[in-house]
Each structure stands twice: as structure tokens, then as C-alpha cells.
Amino acid sequence: MNAELKERCSVELGVFLPVGNGGWITSTTSPQLPATYDYNKAVTLLAEELGFDFALSMAKWRGYGGPSQHWDITLESLSTMSALAEATSRIQVWGTVHTMVFHPAVVAKMSAVIDQILKGRFGLNIVAGSNPYDQGQMGLWRDLDHAGRYAFAEEWLTVLKRLWTEDRVNHKGEHFTLEDCMSNPKPSVMPPIICAGGSDTGFRFTIRNCTASFLLGSDKDDFIKIGRRAKELAAEVGKHDFKTYGLFTIVPGETDAIAQERVDYFNSGVDTEALDNQTREYSGDKSLAQNTMAKRFIAQGNAAQSLTPAAIVGSPQTIGAKLAHIVKGADLDGITVIVPDFIDDLRTIGTSVVDALAESGLRTNALDVRGVHA
């Protein structure tokens, strides 16, 4: 890490909403969360109350079946976030789109309308790939190689940004043609754009075109390595305001032992059929060697575990210390949270874990908000 970099003392906090049934744990014994707007609204309003900075939802078009019917029901991201925009007053609301599914002119219009509701609180997470089955079932998958997907996404973003800022757009590229295209209204501010590309190609694309990157690690050392790499690549092109957000699956308990008992219970009902389907779908990607996200899903399936191997498990004090170590080591700007129960566990994150982070020298808005309300 750059020796001149000051030690990080604050971090943003976000929640990755459970818009797919069962949440993020592939098991029949984990909390069977409903993929309903009402539940996700309750989670988002709780996150806002606790002082979380943002709420993000994924985009998913096909589930993995099995006894748990994992993600067989999912809410569409942008329509969900447009409703949450009206329901919230402070928290940032970030939606996700697959660039192969939506034309950029459609997203330009949709996001500008959502921005009118949110008044500058809207953000857009883009996905350049995923897997051939998810979008292929609709005939929308483009069989591009790894570099080709990012070239497609780069042209997609070029068109999107021009429509956000120009009165009329003429564009003739490899993938899109626009003739005297008008898109009004415009967003009140340029929304932040996030991407989760994890390869060097993905990082460089994200740094060139986006505001921030979502990062995943296989363990704490891998998280730190990936986070440092992203910031190094950003520094090489002088983009020192580039942000990185770690995505963490967290299982809290009153003690480390109780937290581990929860994981063991979830694993006792691991849905290997759903995991096998997930592995098969991602294994069909011809660019698998460069698709870091796909390889993480496959690794979970091969391990037959209900949670990602990188899950942070323990008491709030243990979780806070582990998170602080990774955040500081990787110079992360934000923590994005996945939990088994998005009410009780999220409240634990927003109170006890936030306190533990503060003890490790990391402040969050959640701590400040609670101080105001005390």
C-alpha cells in the first residue's frame, strides 16, 4: 500500500437486500426469507433508521431450484428500488442492471425518473456478464469473451452518460446505434456507478468508467490483496477518488461458539442440488478462467457449503475486529453487509458491530446517527 496513505478512520455501511427468496444462504435450515417488497421495505427502513449509508439490490432472472427453491423468486431490481425511493428519506438507493438485458436508453430514462424521487440518492450497479443460463433463457445472452463483455459494457455506459448529459445523441458503434436520440428528464446529479468486476480487465474497466468497485475475497488475505490491487490500478491513472466496497457475508452470535453453531445448523440443511445447478450454470461460461465471480460461486458449490467460505462468523467483537483489519488493510471505503436474518442480524450489525468497529478505530454514520438519537 502507498506509504503516504493515511490510515483509514471512517467507512460507509450498506446492506445488500434479500430480493431473492432464502436470502444469500443456500440451505433449507437457514431463515427462509420471503422475496417480497414488504420484507425488503422493512429491511431498508431499518437500515435507514440505523444509519446505514446505502441499500443495494441484485438483478437475477433465474433461480437454482433444489429443496430450498433458491432464488426461484426474485424481485426486479430497478422497479423495487423505485418503490423504496418513495419509502425512504435519507439512505442512498442503488439498483442493478445487466448490460445485456437493458438498452442504455431505457436505463437512462428509468434512472432519471428514480432520481427525481430520490433527489440525488440514486446509484447504479452494472453487471457486464453473469452466466449464460440466467439471461440466455430469454435469448439475451451475448456469447462474448471476457474482454468483449467489458467492451460491450463500456459502449453501453458511453451511451448512457451521453443521454444523461446531452440534448440529442447520435451514436454508431459496434453494439448500439442511436439517431437523434433524446432522453429527458436528466438526472439532477450524475449518479454513482458501481461494478463488481474482479479481474484486472474488470478493475481497469471500472476505474475508467465507474465511481466505485464492489470487491469479494476468498479470505481476509485475499480481500486485502484485491483491495490494494484496485487502489493501485486507480492510482496509476490518477483516479485517487475511486472507491472500493467490500461485500461481506456475516453471521453474528452472542459468542463465537453460538455464531458457529448457527453456521453448522445452516450447513446441516445445505441445498446441494441448488448448489450443483449454480455450479453447472457458471461452469458453462467460456470465459470462466477470467470470471472471478463465477469461480467463487463454483468454489462454494464444490465445497458443498451453505455460505461463502469467506463468511465472517463470530461475536460482534470478533466481527468488528476482523472487518476493521480487512478495511484498513485493503483501504476499503465501504462495507456491504449480507446476513442470515435481515431484521435481527442487521440490527446487531448496526449497533454492536458498529460499536466494535469504533473500538478498532473505524467510525460509521450508523454510530453517529445513534449518538444523535440517544
TrEMBL record:
Signal peptide: none annotated. GO terms for biological process: alkanesulfonate catabolic process. InterPro entries: Luciferase-like_dom (IPR011251), Luciferase-like_sf (IPR036661), SsuD_RutA_monooxygenase (IPR050172). Keywords: Flavoprotein, FMN, Monooxygenase, Oxidoreductase. Residues 12-328 form the Luciferase-like domain. One of its GO terms (molecular function) is alkanesulfonate monooxygenase activity. PANTHER family: ALKANESULFONATE MONOOXYGENASE, ALKANESULFONATE MONOOXYGENASE-RELATED. This is Coenzyme F420-dependent N5,N10-methylene tetrahydromethanopterin reductase. It comes from Candidatus Burkholderia verschuerenii. The lineage of its organism: Bacteria, Pseudomonadati, Pseudomonadota, Betaproteobacteria, Burkholderiales.
